[in-house]
């Protein structure tokens, strides 16, 4: 069991499922097609659990479950995969969210379109998995771009009236970022040849490359630009509200919960290890953008009249926290940022899917159309409140642990910046509770009168998310046990140590 | 053996072929011009083969001929198809690529 | 005897013991009400029938266990009375290590007894009060959730876990204030409470972060070990941040504005959360952080200033309120101001702060329940101007309320006399100004409480036509009676033989105050002030009160009616300002960010329009372009070779 | 410069220019054939006898004949005109082509490096064997691919040239109905077009039929001939005779069977 190529299988299994679902004739019935898709996603989850059981804590190797096959020998490109703590956690997030999203979106699309929709989701899962396990920069880049294709169709075909425009905007932004990234990737490769005499895209080889600070700066700029579009940081964010606002809730969850994580993931996996000196030197820029994003996103969320746009802006704010933690260069900050990536995926799913249930019932995403929905859908109101509180980082939920550790880690190095960022939790309370107040309380509006409360299927789809969010809020340490070696490794790669305690006489 | 003359001849034929492509409107005549250009390059190949003293140039010329033959077949078929729908062999009439 | 002069000064002497025996089951205290909350909230409508009863049983069970643990604790020698139970490793990242640990020491024990005791009574009361409410299962679920969170707050052995309980009670408070979801005012009040509390949370968060940065620990034990090594600035800042947190939760100026609005919730909630327990969490936090405050006089001074301002502001607002619950809420604010002030006095005041907190828990909860009983009788009317002469129809309610009234006034031998007078003495010890303020506060309290009780139970009948007041059922009156008993006896019991001092001093330390004025003189001064307040009220309200509030009132009354313009300031500065920021950002996003994206798009479109002109569709044009390109490339090659 | 080269080169250029300048496509094709043959001679001259033969067989023999076939099918139309319709195209084309020719001459012509060894000396078993060795050795993959290309091209040509019937074939009755419906709508003559040479001295296809008033029936000459402008003039005498005949002034002997 131990020597199976788990990671390649995790990439291939959903892809096979996707092709199979594509191939099933529609005449067989939408329910069967959907069941096959869901089955594949559950199978993938099972495979992930098996793979996770092979993962060992406390080993010296950075990457585990590694595989390495030659791909394009002439350029030193290989199909090389492996996971460390961060990769494993992201894989877990993907494996959990996809079945949840499929189940939640069971009736979001018409029966004729269901097969293609579900197949595209599975395809996306495959590509995103490849991104998260690639330890070869070229392979990472390829899947970084390829995953846009299913996403483009998911936004452009299954959203509201503005979906096509939004999909094109999403694609153009991503492609611009990807193009700059490509330039960076090629440049790294060329420089690696100049320095060592042979070119390779292997991560470890590139991380040990002795790049000059000058070229590191340029490469940092290129990589950071691409990842900041994906993450997204203000002012490169404007595609996200459109994309999330125009797509169906399930797609928005995949987009924000998983796809955007590639940006912050890329920062930790490639940006910091490959360009450590430049990262430390240019961190203030990243931190400034991060704090800007936190407040900008939160303020825009308050000003939003559309639920999905609001949630998209909330996510921009949250990505600000993640980037803040990454560039604080403390163990707590980086571990917290990685934990944030996990918890943000969960809280996004909780809020988006629950709100999606409501929007599906009223066929409107305008906040003002919903009022007093509590009277007709008390259970759904509970889930929406849970989602809102989760995005507020209420203590006792996973998002609190994440946000607090990020702020704590930042505070240790940049107290003023962290203090300013902490003020963001007040603004967060305003947007989240105001959303709840405007949608759930008061006298029922016409739109919500007579709608049905949440169904059993919908509860089942959301329960794992809710359970995980609470469980990780009280028992986060298993996740930190997995993540801490990664943050220690990153700290070592950027050559930073945690600040000492301030007390007189040392620690 | 001075092959420069052959090269010059080849260039002249190529240029005349190019002018043919650019100024003649009859698709069939245009096609003949293209054939002429291909032949001009063939001549250059053969001349180079002679100059370099090996047969590779001749083999390439041979392949060019084969490809040209295939191309003529397809090209003429296309011209016939166009003629059938538009009742003309004028290349200017087939301007659907206009932006 | 109120003082034992043998008790001069005690310094904190407890060290944590690993919990064994029955203390190892400490977690049950929290788990019981949490279990109740989970059953009721997850069980759905199936639990409608037995849910409320189950919910009421849970805090009672917790209370029983708490009493048992209390007796166990009493049996231990003084220095072993801090039991520390570490359940599991909570967070461990590098040097940031936080256990999921509970700590039971005399301070938290006092709170546990108060919370579970008063909590149980209010659960029982609610069985009667909420009897007709169709959604009461949810209500009881929230109540249980609150009790669990509050217990976690006081039992946590570190600041981060305290924070979890802190927010848990905030959440429960939010849910309960907004319990009447269909009322927009309730929803707005709930949100306001949460948001204002969040401002306080920022303070608490920053305090915890600073503690970690300074000391690399956030446990109470760790902080008190290392606090002495901290620099003055760090200690002051931690104290200040903690104060912000405490001000948010305890409705202290400038974060007081949410408490009066919070009265939108059902009355038992006001009694339990917004009078007896949650709002005192700030006092708990300050007393718990005594190791920080003892080392920073500047931080103590900040606490004192906040306490003084709040006690006066609350009393001032209380004078003008016609809404019975809001008047009581203003009074709560003021009384907590006393506690905070006392907590700011250091070892002199900690014990008194807690003592006042406990007695206040009894009499204020009792009065709130009384107010609830009145409202229950008057079709949920809260305007005192529509009450009057109720003492005859609601004898038990009036009796219990009157006991509470005497207690809050500080009439001997009721509970408030012991606790409040001690605070006044301690305040004089620190500063004359603070002392005078407390004295003044006592007088104003006497005035507005007399006004309240006169307008409600005495004076002329001003009822609405459809009002048929009647005494409340036993489930409601019994808790009121029990709380009244507490209001009478608690003060004496807590001071008898210096019991509370001996009990708490190992945690907080103690020092006897030495006010510049002789203590009997002070007592006389206090009682005189109170008597003056009562007299004015009787003169104004005993006979007759207007059915409609007069409008030609002084500027001070107007200010008090408007909560001293707290909301107006909030609205002008934060809401309007916030709105402007939101609008501004939205405009920037639309014009600058989106605008630049659109601008790039437009440039691209324009360029493509120009280039499109070259796409004539004529094959021969394309061929020409191709040939031109080939020629240029050749030319380039030729040039490069040259 | 050998005499053979001088003659062949002259002929080749003349053929090329002829193709470029002749108005009729058929003439162009014949001129190209001339160029091809000249090139074949040049190949022989360049020690490539095999290619020379292939050139004659494939190009002159097959390709150019295919052109002629297609020309016959397509016929002639206005595209044969030599007047330029695209503004500036002719001038630009000539300028660019001249520039290209010069550039090619200067760059490629200068790049020739003579190795000095003659082809004849390297031939082991003659030219054909040498080429065969290369083709079935070094270039065997290209050869296979070319084979595939040829097959594909053959299939492709069939697909393109084949006309798929997309409407059901009309029977005579339906054709008749359609024709009269057309007449009702557009006034198009329902009967057959007038045959050429009716009432005329000649019955050649380029002779137009004449209407009873002596004027020309425009439809009686096939369109390609009209497009080419080769419609025969009508004699004045002929038309006058027709007018006379139609007015009964003249009676033709032997043509009176059952008429009058």
UniProtKB/TrEMBL annotation, chain A:
Keyword field contains Transmembrane: yes
Name the UniProt record assigns to this protein: Unannotated protein
Record key words, sorted: Membrane, Transmembrane, Transmembrane helix
Coiled coil: none
Cellular component aspect of the GO annotation: membrane
MF annotations from Gene Ontology: NADH dehydrogenase (ubiquinone) activity; NADH dehydrogenase activity; ubiquinone binding
Pfam annotation, one family: Proton_antipo_M
BP GO terms, sorted: ATP synthesis coupled electron transport; electron transport coupled proton transport
The UniProt record lists the keyword Transmembrane helix: yes
Membrane topology: Multi-pass membrane protein
Primary site of residence: membrane
Compartments where found: Membrane
Domain NADH:quinone oxidoreductase/Mrp antiporter transmembrane: 134-423
InterPro entries according to UniProt: NADH_Q_OxRdtase_chainM/4 (IPR010227), NADH_UbQ_OxRdtase (IPR003918), ND/Mrp_TM (IPR001750)
UniProtKB/TrEMBL annotation, chain B:
One Pfam family from the record: Oxidored_q2
Cellular localisation: Membrane
Record GO biological process: ATP synthesis coupled electron transport
Topological category with respect to the lipid bilayer: Multi-pass membrane protein
TM segment ranges: 6-23, 28-48, 60-83
Single annotated GO MF: oxidoreductase activity, acting on NAD(P)H
Keyword terms: Membrane, NAD, Translocase, Transmembrane, Transmembrane helix, Transport
A single GO cellular-component term on record: NADH dehydrogenase complex
Membership in a protein family: Belongs to the complex I subunit 4L family.
Name of the protein: Unannotated protein
Natural source organism: freshwater metagenome
UniProtKB/TrEMBL annotation, chain C:
Residues of the NADH-Ubiquinone oxidoreductase (complex I) chain 5 N-terminal domain: 90-140
Topology term for the membrane: Multi-pass membrane protein
Boundaries of every NADH:quinone oxidoreductase/Mrp antiporter transmembrane domain copy: 156-445
Residue ranges crossing the lipid bilayer per the database entry: 24-43, 50-71, 107-127, 139-156, 202-223, 229-248, 269-287, 299-320, 336-355, 390-411, 431-454, 475-497, 517-538, 622-640
Record's subcellular location: Membrane
One GO BP: electron transport coupled proton transport
Official protein name in the record: Unannotated protein
Species of origin: freshwater metagenome
TrEMBL record, chain D:
Record-annotated membrane-spanning stretches: 26-44, 56-76, 91-114, 139-161
The entry's keywords: Membrane, Transmembrane, Transmembrane helix
A GO MF term: NADH dehydrogenase (ubiquinone) activity
Pfam name, any one: Oxidored_q3
InterPro entries linked to this entry: NADH_UbQ/plastoQ_OxRdtase_su6 (IPR001457), Nuo/plastoQ_OxRdtase_6_NuoJ (IPR042106)
NCBIfam families in the record: PRK06638.1-5
Protein name: Unannotated protein
Species this chain originates from: freshwater metagenome
């Amino acid at each position: 069991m131990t020597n199976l190529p788990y990671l390649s299988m995790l990439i291939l299994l959903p892809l096979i499922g996707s092709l199979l679902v594509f191939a099933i004739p529609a005449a067989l019935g939408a329910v069967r097609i959907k069941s096959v898709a869901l089955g594949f996603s559950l199978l993938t989850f099972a495979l992930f659990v098996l793979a996770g059981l092979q993962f060992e804590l406390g080993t010296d190797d950075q990457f585990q479950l590694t595989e390495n096959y030659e791909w394009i020998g002439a350029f030193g490109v290989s199909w090389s995969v492996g996971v460390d703590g961060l990769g494993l956690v992201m894989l877990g997030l993907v494996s959990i969210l996809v079945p949840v999203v499929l189940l939640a979106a069971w009736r979001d699309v018409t029966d004729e379109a269901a097969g293609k929709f579900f197949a595209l989701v599975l395809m996306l899962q495959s590509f995103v998995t490849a991104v998260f396990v690639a330890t070869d920069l070229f392979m990472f880049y390829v899947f970084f771009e390829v995953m846009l294709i299913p996403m483009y169709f998911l936004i452009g075909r299954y959203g509201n009236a503005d979906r096509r425009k939004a999909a094109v905007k999403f694609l153009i932004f991503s492609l611009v970022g990807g193009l700059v990234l490509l330039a960076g990737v090629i440049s790294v490769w060329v420089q690696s040849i100049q320095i060592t005499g042979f070119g390779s895209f292997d991560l470890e080889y590139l991380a040990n490359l002795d790049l000059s600070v000058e070229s590191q700066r340029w490469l940092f700029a290129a990589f950071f630009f691409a990842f900041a579009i994906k993450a997204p940081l203000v002012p490169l964010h404007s595609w996200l509200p459109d994309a999330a606002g125009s797509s169906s809730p399930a797609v928005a969850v995949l987009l924000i919960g998983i796809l955007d994580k590639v940006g912050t993931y890329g920062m930790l996996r490639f940006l910091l290890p490959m360009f450590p000196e430049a990262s430390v030197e240019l961190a203030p820029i990243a931190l400034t953008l991060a704090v800007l994003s936190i407040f900008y996103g939160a303020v825009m969320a308050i000003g939003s009249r559309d639920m999905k746009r609001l949630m998209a802006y909330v996510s921009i704010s949250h990505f600000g926290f993640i980037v803040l933690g990454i560039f604080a260069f403390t163990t707590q900050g980086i571990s917290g940022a990685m934990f944030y990536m996990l918890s943000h995926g969960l809280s996004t799913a909780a809020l988006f899917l629950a709100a999606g249930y409501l929007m599906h019932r009223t066929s409107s995403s305008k906040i003002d159309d919903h009022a007093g929905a509590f009277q007709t859908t008390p259970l759904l109101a509970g889930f929406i409140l849970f989602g809102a509180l989760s995005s507020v980082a209420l203590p006792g939920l996973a998002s609190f642990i994440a946000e607090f550790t990020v702020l704590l880690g930042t505070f240790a190095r940049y107290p003023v910046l962290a203090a300013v960022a902490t003020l963001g939790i007040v603004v967060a309370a305003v947007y989240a509770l105001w959303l709840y107040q405007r949608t759930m309380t008061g006298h029922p509006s016409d739109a919500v009168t007579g709608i049905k409360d949440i169904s059993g299927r919908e509860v089942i789809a959301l329960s794992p998310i809710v359970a995980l969010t609470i469980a990780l809020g009280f028992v986060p340490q298993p996740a930190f046990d997995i993540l801490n070696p990664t943050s220690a490794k990153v700290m070592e790669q950027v050559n930073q140590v945690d600040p000492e305690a301030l007390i007189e006489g040392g620690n | 053996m001075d092959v420069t003359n052959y090269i010059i001849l080849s260039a002249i034929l190529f240029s005349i072929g190019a002018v043919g492509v650019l100024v003649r409107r009859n698709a069939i005549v245009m096609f003949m011009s293209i054939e002429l250009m291909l032949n001009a390059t063939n001549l250059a190949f053969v001349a180079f083969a002679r100059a370099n003293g090996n047969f590779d140039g001749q083999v390439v010329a041979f392949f060019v001929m084969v490809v040209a033959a295939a191309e003529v077949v397809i090209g003429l078929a296309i011209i016939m198809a166009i003629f059938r729908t538009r009742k003309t062999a004028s290349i200017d009439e087939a301007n659907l690529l206009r932006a | 005897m109120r003082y034992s002069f043998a008790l001069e000064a005690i310094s904190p002497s407890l060290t944590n013991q690993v919990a064994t025996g029955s203390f190892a089951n400490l977690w049950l205290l929290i788990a019981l009400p949490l279990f109740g909350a989970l059953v009721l909230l997850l069980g759905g409508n199936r639990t409608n029938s037995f849910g409320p009863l189950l919910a009421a049983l849970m805090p009672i069970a917790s209370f029983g266990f708490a009493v048992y643990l209390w007796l166990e604790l009493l049996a231990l020698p003084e220095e072993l009375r801090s039991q520390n139970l570490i359940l599991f490793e909570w967070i461990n990242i590098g040097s940031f290590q936080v256990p999921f640990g509970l700590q039971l020491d005399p301070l938290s024990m006092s709170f546990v007894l108060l919370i579970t005791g008063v909590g149980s009574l209010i659960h029982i009361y609610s069985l009667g009060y909420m009897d007709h409410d169709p959604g009461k299962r949810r209500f009881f679920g929230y109540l249980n959730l609150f009790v669990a969170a509050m217990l976690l707050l006081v039992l946590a052995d570190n600041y981060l876990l305290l924070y979890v309980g802190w927010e848990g009670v905030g959440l429960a408070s939010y849910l309960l204030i907004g319990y009447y979801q269909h009322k927009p005012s309730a929803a707005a009040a709930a949100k306001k409470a949460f948001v204002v509390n969040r401002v306080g949370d920022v303070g608490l968060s920053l305090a915890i972060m600073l503690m970690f940065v300074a000391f690399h620990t956030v446990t109470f034990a760790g902080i008190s070990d290392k606090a002495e090594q901290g620099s003055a600035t760090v200690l002051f800042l931690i104290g200040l941040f903690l104060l912000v947190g405490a001000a948010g939760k305890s409705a202290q100026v400038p974060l007081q504005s949410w408490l009066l609005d919070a009265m939108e919730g059902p009355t038992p909630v006001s009694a339990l959360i917004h009078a007896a327990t949650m709002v005192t969490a700030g006092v708990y936090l300050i007393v718990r952080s005594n190791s920080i405050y003892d080392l920073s006089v500047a931080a103590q001074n900040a606490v004192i200033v906040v306490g003084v301002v709040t006690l006066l502001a609350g009393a001032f607002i209380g004078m003008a309120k016609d809404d019975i619950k809001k008047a009581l809420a203003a009074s709560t604010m003021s009384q907590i101001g006393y506690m905070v002030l006392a907590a700011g006095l250091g070892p002199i005041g900690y014990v008194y702060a807690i003592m006042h907190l406990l007695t206040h828990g009894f009499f204020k909860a009792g009065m709130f329940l009384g107010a609830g009983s009145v409202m229950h009788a008057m079709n949920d009317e809260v305007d005192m101007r529509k009450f009057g002469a109720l003492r005859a129809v609601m004898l038990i309610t009036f009796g219990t309320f009157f006991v509470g009234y005497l207690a809050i006034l500080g009439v001997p031998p009721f509970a408030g006399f012991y606790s409040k007078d001690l605070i006044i003495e301690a305040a004089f010890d620190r500063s004359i100004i603070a002392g005078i303020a407390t004295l003044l506060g006592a007088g104003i309290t006497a005035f507005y409480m007399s006004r309240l009780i006169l307008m409600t139970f005495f004076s002329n009948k001003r009822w609405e036509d459809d009002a048929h007041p009647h005494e409340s059922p036993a489930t409601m009156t019994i808790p009121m009676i029990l709380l009244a008993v507490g209001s009478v006896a608690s003060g004496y019991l807590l001071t008898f033989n210096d019991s509370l001092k001996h009990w708490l001093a190992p945690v907080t330390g103690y020092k006897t105050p030495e006010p510049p004025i002789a203590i009997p003189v002070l007592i006389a001064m206090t009682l005189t002030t109170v008597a003056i307040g009562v007299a004015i009220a009787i003169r104004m309200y005993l006979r007759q009160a207007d059915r409609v509030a007069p409008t030609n009132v002084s500027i001070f009354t107007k200010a008090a009616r408007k909560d001293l313009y707290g909301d107006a300031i909030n609205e002008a500065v934060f809401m309007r300002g916030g709105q402007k920021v939101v609008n501004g950002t939205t405009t920037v996003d639309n014009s600058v960010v989106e605008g630049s994206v659109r601008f790039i798009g437009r440039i691209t479109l324009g360029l493509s329009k120009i280039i499109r002109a070259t796409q004539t569709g004529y094959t021969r044009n394309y061929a020409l372009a191709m040939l031109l390109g080939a020629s240029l490339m050749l030319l380039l090659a030729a040039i490069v070779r040259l | 410069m050998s005499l053979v080269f001088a003659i062949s080169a002259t002929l080749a250029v003349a053929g090329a220019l002829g193709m470029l300048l002749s108005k009729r496509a058929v003439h162009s094709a014949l001129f190209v054939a001339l160029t091809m043959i000249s090139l074949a001679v040049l190949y022989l001259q360049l020690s490539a006898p095999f290619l020379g033969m292939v050139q004659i067989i494939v190009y002159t023999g097959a390709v150019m004949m295919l052109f002629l076939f297609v020309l016959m099918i397509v016929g002639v139309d206005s595209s044969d005109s030599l007047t330029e319709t695209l503004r500036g195209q002719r001038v630009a084309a000539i300028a660019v082509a001249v520039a290209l020719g010069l550039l090619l001459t200067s760059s490629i012509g200068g790049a020739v490096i003579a190795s000095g060894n003659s082809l004849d000396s390297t031939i082991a078993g003659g030219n054909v064997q040498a080429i065969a060795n290369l083709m079935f050795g070094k270039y065997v993959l290209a050869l296979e691919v070319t084979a595939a290309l040829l097959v594909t091209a053959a299939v492709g040509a069939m697909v393109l040239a084949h006309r798929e019937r997309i409407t059901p074939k009309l029977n005579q009755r339906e054709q008749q109905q359609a024709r009269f419906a057309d007449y009702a709508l557009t006034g198009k003559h329902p009967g057959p077009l007038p045959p050429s040479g009716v009432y005329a001295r000649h019955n050649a296809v380029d002779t137009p039929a004449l209407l009873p008033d002596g004027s020309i029936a425009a439809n009686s000459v096939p369109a390609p001939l009209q497009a080419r402008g080769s419609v025969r003039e009508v004699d004045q005498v002929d038309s006058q005779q027709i007018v006379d005949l139609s007015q009964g002034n003249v009676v033709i002997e032997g043509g009176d069977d059952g008429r009058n």
